[in-house]
Amino acid sequence: MRRAYKFRLRPTARQHVALGQSLTSHRELYNTALQERRDAWRLKKIAVSYGDQSAQLKEIRKTRTDVAVWSFSSQQATLRRLNRAFVSFFRRVRAGETPGYPRFKPAHRFDSVEWPKDGDGCRWLPEARRLYLQGIGHVKVSIHRQVEGRVKTIQVRREGRRWMPVLSCADVPARPLQPTGAAVGIDVGIASFAITSDGRQVINPGFGRAAAAKLATARQAVARKRRGSDNRRRAKEALAARHRKIANQRRNFHHRAARALVARYDLLVLEDLKIRNMARRPAPRPDLDRPGRFLPNGAAAKTGLNRSIHDAGWARFVLILRAKAEEAGHVVIDVDARHTSDRCEACGHTAAENRASQAVFSCRACGHTVNADEHAARNILRAGLARLAAISAA
User: Fold this and answer.
1) Residue 349 CB: number of other CB atoms within 10 A?
2) Same structural domain, 121 and 217
3) Torsion angle, CA of 321/325/331/332, rounded to 10 degrees?
4) What are phi and psi of 145, to 5 degrees?
5) Taking Cα atoms as reference points, which of 282, 389, 285, 269 lies closest to residue 336?
6) Looking at the structure, do residues 114 and 225 belong to the same domain, yes or no?
7) What would the pLDDT profile of 298-350 be if each residue is shown by its tens digit?
8) Whole domain around residue 111: which residue ranges?
9) How far is CA 125 from CA 17, 49, 97, 119, 263, in A?
10) 187 and 163 within one domain
11) How far, in Å, CA of 385 to CA of 373, rounded?
12) Which residues contact 178 (CB under 8 A, 6 or more apart)?
């Protein structure tokens, strides 16, 4: 298995400055390489590749001693990062999506440097509780758990004034759990974060909603500060710290909820939700009788729903659940989300009117009445078992 381990660096004052300088140098390289690609195409209709730009690094390092301080491999990784942005751009163009041309990175949007191989410009030293980085030195690391497998890549991220190393490891051994023989369908939602087909409920903590007042206060503090001032910078750091706390709380909740589900069930069935579509803003409704005016489209109400969807973090939860199930030797499968909420489990009648309310399912054909979320979870489980049987038969 492939797993990532995240710790916290404890740099000295000198190392803290050096880490910031390294980040600035790699950001300059990224932006300069982007400018070269843009100018080459705009002026000469020439497409510059990663290979072309990587070949220039040796000459750049000869003439710029401040650039030569840092690892050659990490600079190549930064150029590959830009290349991936262009690959994604052209893929979206071919697919007819909104392409989004690669943009220059300001300081607050470039927060990581990657070393593609342990031992090449960096070295993980768990016995000494240190991480060696070229140009920075041996930096102390707070190691709170054992790193398993083989360290492949090392990334250092800036989170506020903290520096976090992320180790991507291959060949991490699995930790299979004792089989329970149980299978479950899981219906995720807003009122309850999740309800299982056997009636268990996972309460939605709503960390973002609970901290909404503090976030609003922090945003107002930023808005009152003069642009470019140190006071505004400090206010933005305080706002970012509040967002990080919410993200950490949400991630911790996801890990705990996923671990509890994986420990209890061998087979977990989820809806294949299109979360991007669910959180999309409603299209404007032009008023044909009054050109230039628009009719109400429910955007205000949809904004609150979208905020709740993002606060729940379903997509991240599913990723964590899959990783923990793989580690435990259990199975997670997706099923089509269509008609899981409005098809009667008793008679099979399907109609939107069956969903009498958000909380109650009442079949218009047979009168079967039950909790709507539990009913949807049982439909999800039934579809998952049918899909699993079809795969086994094939």
Assistant:
1) 15
2) no
3) 10
4) -155, 160
5) 269
6) no
7) 888 888 888 999 999 999 999 999 999 999 999 999 999 888 988 999 898 99
8) 3-170
9) 22, 35, 45, 10, 33
10) no
11) 18
12) none
Question: Residue 79: which of 109, 49, 45 has the closest Cα?
Answer: 49
Q: Any idea what the Cα angle at residue 328 is, between residues 322 and 333, rounded to 5°?
A: 35
Provide the whole-model pTM.
0.88
Give the end of a domain, one of 170, 195, 230. Answer: 170
Residue-level length of the chain: 394
178 within some domain = no
Model confidence over 68-125: pLDDT tens digits?
999 999 999 999 999 999 999 999 999 998 899 999 999 989 999 999 999 999 999 9
- The pair of structure tokens assigned to 382 is 């039934």
Query: Do residues 174 and 327 make contact, with C-beta atoms less than 8 angstroms apart?
Result: yes
- Contact of 229 with 257, CB cutoff 8 Å: no
Both tokens of 152, joined, read: 């492949």
CA of residue 106 relative to chain centroid, distance: 21
Across the chain, the runs of DSSP E, i.e. the strands, are 3-6, 8-10, 112-115, 122-125, 130-133, 137-142, 150-159, 162-170, 183-188, 192-196, 201-203, 267-271, 285-286, 294-295, 331-335, 360-362, 369-371
